[in-house]
């Protein structure tokens, strides 16, 4: 658990970070809260000759709510998400999910940007951002672009972000939909055995919109269009929940690990998805 | 009485002696980050060691190329077995009468085994150099299953080839270590064969690990000028380490000083001697500089001593009314690559023969076969006396299985089989003499406290609701009644490497009436500095706050066998009381002289000696201490000191009654502990607050083991649970609120009647949590399922019982 030698940079603006990234290419990595990268470096599974610490960049922090548009800086911590009163009204699912990430000490350091950018299928925020249909702002030498969370993840640790780009901001629209983030884990600090985010709103006595996404049930977060479609137009009765759950299960591809074999994970996923949908419905 | 004399109860309170919930004096430094742990130690010129470890579980080592590592600036040396061989230190004896490679000698036998030791000026350089050491391996077939091992043609321990006998008798196979038998085999089998009711069960108590917060480490410092070797380390038995170091190195024992500083938890993991200690000592002798070695968490989990790994097969017989008539137990014990179990020499399976538990079982037989596999060596007693957790788990599961066989309530089955109060001292069928107990009183108190009848009614309602499809949550009522055997032990039958398992205390009273006491034990969090001062305070009448307790420095402390197996209070605590009584005896003579009466005319009263019948005439202990140093007292030597080496006449037998109420989500396997009630009887209670803390800790480690904590291997011998991501260490979130309670049945042979408590909650807690899981599924036909009861295994149980529709 002793890392190899590395150069440490602590730029105070985005331009400074991009300059180091451009200079060293593959040999440089940015670090947000460090909860994923530092252990990998200590295990010598990640060789990072040039480490760029983003803690000094003030413009990457902060939560802005402009009408229905919410913008969250990449270096905003999970704790900041939980403590922000406006955000709890505008997107309560975010608070509910952030409270299920590890423990307070981790949440004081762990950032939303690091969580979504790392591409770790175990992280909670990617699925959540897909559920919210968030967009990620990427800044590189050639300028700024936006990628939808639902298009961002390619494979485990592989994302649409170029090596020389920085994920700077997350944007999404406030939602009054019924919400739930349901997660089963072995203990505090563990990745999910299965987790599911659900946002559901009613239109009269029918479901008007539904979004269902899952965590750690494939090598990428899984947003299930079919699950949402199965709910929309229904009354949200048991049959609809079952149809949506079956549809969501058809979209996952979990692997066996110490949490249990695939058979178990699929069964638990079904339970967790059903509970998330039912709880979101109860709030819709 | 003199108006200035405080009331007697005020004087008692002022002592903060036995029975006082005195705050822990250690906590001021621990809670402020001012502890002094081994890694805090920085000596001038200190070098740093790090290991090259085997990625293979079984492989031949063809070559080790150290050239590139040695070329790295800052690297001082790279030690291999070849370098240790001329010193005869490439192998070392184990506590179990086997030997163990210090560094790989021709082959490796488990993943993570030490292959080479890099010494560098800097910890980071040492880690870099480890990567530069090139080891060429030829992999060999791996055996991780002890039953397969006993059938295999593959010889794991080539160094033992042809040896048909080991430290504990005949070896039946080249991968077999020993067979240990206790009890009457023929009679037991006859009783069971003819019994009205017999229950059989096989159970695997999985391999786990004590995982103390602080891993193991050492700083060795050889002073070549004065020839003295100082070894600072995470040692639960520093004096034994000194003796072993002397025997191994040839350095005379007076030239070796072993210091255990603050230790961040041991739980058995820090009893043994590890290659890291030996290598840091050799490296310091070679370089003439201090050498530090600290393992990281992964090294701790994969290479230092594991616990359990017992495959237990039981048969228990009873009359149709439930009176137990016989017990048969066979254990296949997976000891890993080397037999490095930490047990008293004559007990290769520890005190597993306490497996008749708290019950009056007239006939019993136990056989244990130790087996080599390609897993890490160890076999320590993780928060229990030697193998007692295994024994108690075994009997408490067998009782539950017998209750199923008899279609009887498990609480009632226990009650009708308990050893009765009037049977103590009780001779067990497997050779122990239980000192004292009152099991029925404890059991009735526990069941009443939790409203056992009401719980059973609630559970029946829940099962009915489940069957009607109204709930998916089952309710389990976990019961356990345990008897521990601690305080090893009588020198006549307990030794470690030939050293009798006595312990010691040396007390020195200062002229102004304060004191220092030094003991042969060493606290790893138990709070000795608090509680031993309380024992002394009551014995000698000096306030606990005026008594310093010191342990862990072999140059100053009297020889003792250390702290494990809940032995500190039963053995060193007794030595403390006895040393205190010697002080008091001398103080009585001084007091009588000062009061100008005969010795027999004064008596001890809390903090003073008073003239019998004239309490206004007295001398306080402070007066007496001063007189001991400033007056010539005829026939009495100056000073006030005493030392006691205590050889206990018997073990002590703490016991307790636990109840766990658990809800289980059948669909996800998630468990929720609604309530946990723990009644402990540890004899005389020294500090109720420290006892409660010990119980919370032991129960939490029990919960960990039951619900998920394991060292698991794949078929290739790779450790699958080598980090805290997968090795379950519960946080406050996973831990329920514990209710504690007690009865007091003093030990009749211990000077103050205390029995020890640190490990009881672990011993009793494991079967209690596990029985709760089993109890929830009993109405659906479950007899037994192996731990750990993590989500997926509980789910698998439910699935196997057809509960997922």
Automatic annotation (TrEMBL), chain A:
The organism named in the record is: Sedimentitalea xiamensis
Residue ranges of domain FAD-binding PCMH-type in the record:
1-177
Keyword annotations of the record: FAD, Flavoprotein, Oxidoreductase
Please indicate if the UniProt record lists Lyase as a keyword.
no
Q: Does the keyword Flavoprotein apply?
A: yes
Please give the superkingdom of this protein's source: Bacteria
Q: PANTHER family, per this entry?
A: XANTHINE DEHYDROGENASE SUBUNIT C-RELATED (PTHR42659:SF2)
This chain belongs to the protein called Xanthine dehydrogenase family protein subunit M
Pfam families in UniProt: CO_deh_flav_C, FAD_binding_5
From TrEMBL, chain B:
Enzyme class name: oxidoreductase
Q: What GO terms are given for molecular function?
A: carbon-monoxide oxygenase activity
Q: EC number(s)?
A: 1.2.5.3
What keywords does the record list, in alphabetical order?
Answer: Molybdenum, Oxidoreductase
Organism superkingdom: Bacteria
Quick check: keyword Metal-binding in the entry? no
SUPFAM superfamilies the UniProt entry points to: CO dehydrogenase molybdoprotein N-domain-like, Molybdenum cofactor-binding domain
Ranges for domain Aldehyde oxidase/xanthine dehydrogenase a/b hammerhead: 32-141
Query: What's the protein name?
Result: Aerobic carbon-monoxide dehydrogenase large subunit
Q: Which organism is it from?
A: Sedimentitalea xiamensis
